[in-house]
């Protein structure tokens, strides 16, 4: 698709006597109103200033002033991931726009529907290296579903309407609308709804019937089937349809990091999370399967390990709304392109039909998997240094908050522990940066989630490293009365990097100590920092104080709460599959570091 809206959105029809004439800036705000937008996150600057003037008077759209544009982007992501609605971020040109890039890339990797509106310098100055000029359309083209450049006021309604259509349909994702300052200042008839024409954009939603029948037959014939569930199930809002198919087939099921909550953890068919830090039953179920039914999953390297050695005896049914994902990494025996919500209903009915006379016998398969569950339950060992176990802290947060809460994690060890030790019973309860692995995601994403779902408890489970990247958004939360809860899992280090250094670099901890925790200078002191931001701040250093601090946080809803949980730096994430080897070599350890002696080339 062209970057210029003139190619994607035709000129509006001629003005009539009743057609209002608005500035481009007013058209931006009116378009957001008519699209049902109620909340946006942004930071003004020179090139977007015209939009901020009518935004001040608008009573329908709540603008939340962030302290950094990256925070606006992640907040829009959290808003979208928690609610299913399109998140919106606004920034100015140049550095304002480029500060959004990390969040845009993050949303692209995790299929999050957001629209980013940026100001651009005057069209007459573009290409001259003008003050705060950056080619944000060119910069973001590889990491958006589409990037619009708007140079005329009359094209603004169509561009914004098209952006929302593209972001929220098919495989969701980020869309950028870059608007020059002269387009914002000029006047034009405001015509709504605009005539949107998106040549070539025709997402396939209804799957081919023969492919559905072929998939159903493979499931009926399989002796060792596994439903491999990815984040696409959540984006498609297909959790109920997934549960129906799972119970109809009786097949075991695994949920990826992005799919946690798509299927209840309490369900007996759920084996847990697969991948590098997945449960042993989930990892080995995929590895030993004779059929993998991939549903909105993309065979990410963190799930497959060494792709050539992944599930060597399995046939593959791959269902995805994005045809580019089919057979990209693992060739699909039965490729199915379509909307999962519809495909799962059709597949359920087809399976019932083909298995009416002879239900598949997978009792032996379940006996093997149940044996793995009994032998390798998910657990952790108590640290030997006398400090708290981070797994215990996170587990208690989940138990005391319950499944109706929302949990937004940063990236690293605490992210894996939050995925492992909190029980997820519903979709949209677990928010994290899966594909990009963006440190700094948690606090602003939690902020966005709380704005979208104000009646839910929202936790930001963060590491001391991640927290220092975006904690300035606590000011945004305090001033705008967004009472998130922040749990800093403070091991005074870049924990996941430190774990790899311990295991693979002879314990040489090069530049991973952060000096924030036990026995250090505590720079910064997270309690003092949080108090300076207007938050209730608590430090916890003993396990007997964990529950009390969590309960205090749950009872405090007039301001954000930050709890500095001082935990052991020696705790590691287990199980673990070392990078570059077969998943058959998954290592399960509680009390010692295993020897990785069977690595593949």
UniProtKB/TrEMBL annotation:
Pathway assigned in UniProt: Amino-acid biosynthesis; L-valine biosynthesis; L-valine from pyruvate: step 1/4; Amino-acid biosynthesis; L-isoleucine biosynthesis; L-isoleucine from 2-oxobutanoate: step 1/4
Alphabetized NCBIfam families for the sequence: acolac_lg, PRK07789.1
InterPro entries the record matches: Acetolactate_synth_lsu (IPR012846), AHAS_TPP (IPR039368), DHS-like_NAD/FAD-binding_dom (IPR029035), THDP-binding (IPR029061), Thiamin_PyroP_enz_cen_dom (IPR012000), Thiamin_PyroP_enz_TPP-bd_dom (IPR012001), TPP-bd_CS (IPR000399), TPP_enz (IPR045229)
Reactions catalysed according to its record: 2 pyruvate + H(+) = (2S)-2-acetolactate + CO2
Family statement drawn from the similarity comment of this UniProt entry: Belongs to the TPP enzyme family.
Keywords assigned: Amino-acid biosynthesis, Branched-chain amino acid biosynthesis, Magnesium, Metal-binding, Thiamine pyrophosphate, Transferase
Organism: Microbacterium psychrotolerans
UniProt-listed Pfam families: TPP_enzyme_C, TPP_enzyme_M, TPP_enzyme_N
Protein name from the UniProt record: Acetolactate synthase
Residue ranges occupied by any Thiamine pyrophosphate enzyme central domain in the UniProt entry: 212-347
Cofactor detail note: Binds 1 thiamine pyrophosphate per subunit.
Needed co-factor(s): thiamine diphosphate; Mg(2+)
EC nos: 2.2.1.6
Lineage, opening ranks: Bacteria, Bacillati, Actinomycetota, Actinomycetes, Micrococcales
Broad enzyme group: transferase
Residues annotated as domain Thiamine pyrophosphate enzyme TPP-binding: 410-565
Coiled-coil ranges from the UniProt annotation: none
Chain ranges of the Thiamine pyrophosphate enzyme N-terminal TPP-binding domain: 23-137
Superkingdom to which the source organism belongs: Bacteria
